[in-house]
Amino acid sequence: MPTPAPQILLIEDNRADVGLVREALQEHEVRCEVLVIANGEIAVQFIEEIDAGQHPCPDLILVDLNLPKKPGREVLKRLRASPVCKDASVVVLTSSDSQKDKDDVAPFAPLHYLRKPSRLADFIALGGLFKQIVELRH
Description:
Layout: E1 7-11, H1 15-27, E2 33-37, H2 40-51, E3 60-63, H3 72-81, E4 90-94, H4 99-105, E5 112-115, H5 120-137
Parallel strand pairs: 1-2, 1-3, 3-4, 4-5
Helix pairs in contact: 1-5, 2-3
């Protein structure tokens, strides 16, 4: 039986950024399933469903901080409280370069805090980092 494809959970409300992440993964030949959740409230519900055994914990979770309905910080807090996903690989991918935001998420131990690049080539280059993380986890 073949092993299932790695799964990346992208918690992002900006459709253009979702497209850029998908493009970055494709460019770096990351063979994976991408689940997109567009607001913090649904993301927290999804984590609760993981804890209830309805879904596996994704191999990589990309979280934007500025989400509708519930901020990314609350999603990270719930994620780290999860018995199933508390050790998940998390990357914060946000437009915020604020030191306060970096300090606020530090207790949740993301692997990386990345400001969304403004140059397309830089955004596409992130696919290489995501590939490394997924390959280590899978």
